[in-house]
Automatic annotation (TrEMBL):
Family: Belongs to the zinc-containing alcohol dehydrogenase family.
InterPro entries named in the record: ADH-like_C, ADH-like_N, ADH_Zn_CS, GroES-like_sf, NAD(P)-bd_dom_sf
Lineage: Bacteria, Pseudomonadati, Planctomycetota, Planctomycetia, Pirellulales
PANTHER family attached to this UniProt entry: SORBITOL DEHYDROGENASE (PTHR43161)
Organism: Aeoliella mucimassa
Documented EC number(s): 1.1.1.14
Protein name: Sorbitol dehydrogenase
Gene this chain is encoded by: gutB
Amino acid sequence: MKSFKLSALHTLESMEVPAPVIERGTDVLVRIGAVGVCGSDLHYYTTGRIGDQVVEYPFTVGHECAGTVIQVGSEVTRVAVGDRVAIEPSLSCGSCDQCVAGRENTCRNNLFLGCPGQVEGALAELMVMPETNLFRVGDEVDFGMATFSEPLAIGVYTVQQSQLRQEHAIGLLGMGPIGHSVMLPAIDLGCRAIYCTEKVDARCDKAVEAGAHWAGNVDRDDVVREILSREPAGLDIVYECCGDQRALDQAVELLKPGGRLMIVGIPECDEVSFAPHVMRRKEITIVNVRRQRGCVPAALELIAKYPTHVDRLLTHRFAFADTEAAFDFVEHKRDGVIKAIVEFA
Ligand SMILES: [Zn+2]
Ligand SMILES: [Zn+2]
């Protein structure tokens, strides 16, 4: 089968590799239909690493994927040949203290698709996954939309962890796919006001179109002053969705006393800083988000409930052969791209 592999920084090469085969009774062979390009894939493409996870070439990235079941192991009951499925990319061990405590997302033996040193990613024609990682999707949801269940599940989980309530005013700093993935469940909950910040004008427009009450460009607007002029008491929750030091500083300024800072973005650097006196005086709670657990079904429900909303976020679709162009588009945020999808013929 064909697979796209990172072979150097900024280089994706199509290679012929052996097709995966079913080894356990609970395994399922899936023909991949679409793969979403994620910010984390892009970190590996542009810098070859996230923290101490370093790519050894050649390596296949990609973890936002969906496809069709083409073969099932002898013990599989959850899906059948021909089913269209969204794939949960995280493989937890089920037996460590974290899994036993119901915290599969911090499993000590976790393997994640397209993570260096763990499992090869989804930018390939075929993939074998355990049946528990597969979620059936209806015919009305195309594969591109189904791949969005991965970032959207993180958004659903983030909103759960943030204890968001309807009366809250919130900030979303960084309106890429994760910013939007947090916004959709917040809209669904009916939260009172949503303020967004971004560096790309087209993304600001998209945020307002999607339901933000206000969106500003951090490179041009004094976003803290603009937001606080509309919410003088400050914001209840700020979701940092871009991994940027400036956004972390703005988040602390924007929050009201007792507010909650949700850190979802992945920074490119290894250390960030906080202003301790402001945080302490306001008694800010900081919550880190590690992917998600158990939120794929809720994400698929949101996709079914808001199809036009989700479709609007899948701004660019590329053929499998043009995978490198998809990465280039996302890296340079060309043409206001939010989510680029690679589709298989
Ligand atoms: Zn992702
Ligand atoms: Zn575990």
